Description:
The complex is a heterodimer of chains A (153) and B (607).
Chain A: H1 2-9, H2 19-30, H3 35-45, H4 49-58, E1 70-75, H5 78-82, H6 85-96, E2 109-114, E3 126-128, E4 131-133, H7 138-144, H8 148-152
Parallel strand pairs in A: 1-2
Antiparallel strand pairs in A: 1-3, 3-4
Helix pairs in contact in A: 1-2, 2-3, 3-4
Chain B: E1 16-21, H1 24-28, H2 31-44, E2 51-56, E3 68-71, E4 75-77, H3 85-94, H4 120-123, H5 141-146, H6 151-159, H7 162-172, H8 184-193, E5 200-205, H9 214-221, H10 223-237, E6 241-246, H11 251-266, E7 282-287, H12 297-304, E8 328-332, H13 333-345, H14 347-351, E9 361-368, E10 374-379, H15 384-391, E11 401-406, E12 412-415, H16 425-430, E13 439-444, H17 449-463, H18 469-486, H19 494-508, H20 512-516, H21 519-527, H22 529-536, E14 552-554, H23 564-568, E15 574-575, E16 583-584, H24 594-598, E17 604-606
Parallel strand pairs in B: 1-2, 5-6, 5-8, 6-7, 9-13
Antiparallel strand pairs in B: 1-3, 3-4, 9-10, 11-12, 11-13, 14-17, 15-16
Amino acid sequence: MEERLSSILSSYEGKREELIPILQQIQGEFGYLPEQAMLEIARFARVPESSVYAIATFYTQFRFTPIGKKHVMVCRGTACYVRGASRVLETVEELLGIKEGETTEDMEYSLETVACIGACGLSPCIMINKKVEAKMTRKRLTDVLGKGEAAEA
Amino acid sequence: MAETTASSDASKTYRAELLICAGTGCVSNRSFKIRDALEAEIRQRGLDDEVRVVTTGCQGFCAQGPIMIFQPDGIFYQMLTEEDVPLLVEEHLIKGRPVEKLMYVPPEGDEVVPKLSDIDFFRKQRLVVLRNRGLIDPEKIDEYIARDGYRALAKVLTGMTSEEVIEVVKASGLRGRGGAGFPTGIKWGLTRQAEGNGKCIICNADEGDPGAFMDRSIIESDPHAVLEGMAIGAYAIGAKNGYVYIREEYPLAMQRLHIAIDQAREYGLLGEDILGSGFSFDLAVHRGAGAFVCGEETSLIASLEGRTPEPRIRPPFPAQSGLWGQPTNINNVETWANVPVIISRGAEWYASLGTDTSKGTKVFSVVGKVNNTGLVEVPMGITMREIVFDIGGGIPDGKQFKAVQTGGPSGGCIPESLLDLPIDYERLMEVGSIMGSGGLIVMDEDTCMVDIARYFLDFLRSESCGKCTTCREGIAAMHDILADICAGQGEPEHIDLLGELAEAVSDASLCALGGTAPNPVLSTLRHFRDEYEAHIRDKKCPAGVCRALITYRIDPDKCKGCLLCTKACPEQIIRGEAKKPQTIDTEACIKCGVCRESCKFDAVLVE
């Protein structure tokens, strides 16, 4: 990890305004923000570790635990909400057997919600690894999540 | 829309051009696969010299995606699949017979409408900001230039002073499209006059309102319009640096923005000494990280500086002291994209569109319980009825219209009695809503207005930055009361209490997030007080949404005993013999609604 960290950090100057881009790149690389990385970032930018945490915990984008291979985000935007996003979330929770914010034990799936992914014309929608899946129904959900058998049970 | 697209290879003309929509909506419906299939089929038939496939930005009619426009005939094809491709090529391209079964049929009608220009969704629109929508490939600067792109910048750099540019923008009447509606020319003038030699401009593309995607769509379909607007603004204001602050959730828009910036630099339209004028301007992209409060100017600036994005007291305004303490001008995507047209066609022309106080057009995302969901651009002053019923095609499944929510979590709802209100900044304020950034969410009889108020307050509760006590605690308190009402524990005094809290939150919070947070509650109380009373007094949810207040029942007259619901029920509590009416064990029912969704005979009732 140290090598990957220092190679990322070497492309920055260590200015305060680079904190968010650094955090984004490190999360892009590791899938989350490892504790060690937080410490290294603080040293690199010459700010207290608490400042790095203050930024990272403020934004919904950042997380401190690893995520599964398939990152499922259920949209909670208003258009999706009036067209049944709550039910979509319940169905996904049921199909994957995890709650919002959790990851399956086999590290296959992580489930989160997102304020809006801007595909409101096709609501309700979800996003799997940055790919938008539109007009979700129970059937479409079982298809895109590859959980056909679970639905039959 | 009869124009044909510009070709990036000027020497080449094509007999036909197939314009495939590649906005986020159509891409999620596999439009790239269709493009690939079309290209392969065209090559296989040896037509690649006479026909070309163009991927365009969002065409707006998301509901019918993936969509394709066939030029020069102007035929609108919709809901395409890869299987349709051989037929389409064979019939339309080879035999010259347009394929009816892939054309659009209006919600209330059975006749196809072949041409885009005849479809109601497009007919009432007036494209100014979205002037290049669906006509150019957003990843090719040549196509933007061929449609007069960057001419306004050239005009400004070669023949206008900064003051003249600002005067034109002032005279046009353009107001901020991010929601607040501050006159753009005045804002520019203030930053221009401020002292400081490191002035900068920012494009706010952090589109935080849930249910809105205007900015995403503009960047995806015409990124150079935004860049050109910014370069003109930078010249007028005297800024050398610019930033685009864009939402992380918009990967496609981000990619197109980067491509556009690289191409503009390569053509000398960004960077040092633009067009030999001596004027230099360049910009950087900053990815947001998902915080609604960053839509507020001072928060956005704090975020760019790498600080916790809490708003601060104004004055000083960003125009005096913004990024790094330098005079800073922030406008949103749509505002910037208006600028090149205003310069090219003149302030007078622009001001001829719209109402007394609100000039030009507005882009709206029309979504929710409406047939033609998508992105539309209409002149200011159009009525909500025209948007929802003429352009939007009315409410699906024969349901009753209930309200349109505008302005996102800071806005309010417009009930049926106000549908004929002409839309402009002032009139929306008068009825307790705001223009906002342009999200229009249509709600029908199945939407509970108390639940919607609770939904917005839940959103705001988690997005409050926590700096002001009234916002942090007040919104949470209001949310909890609404949650109680939805859970059947509402008390008559709750309504007054909500009013008092609303006043405190709105008066004593520093920024607009807190200042406008009570709007969804106040506006639903104003227009739908009867629904609140039904929840509190009668313990009923008229829309059948709030689970504590509803029961599911099967209508024995409609039930055919097909057992679809019995199989679908996750709790296995629907019982009865096959081919006979079923019954739900209401005591054990978790009210998930799966039975109702699975029923083909509308036999599951909510009471």
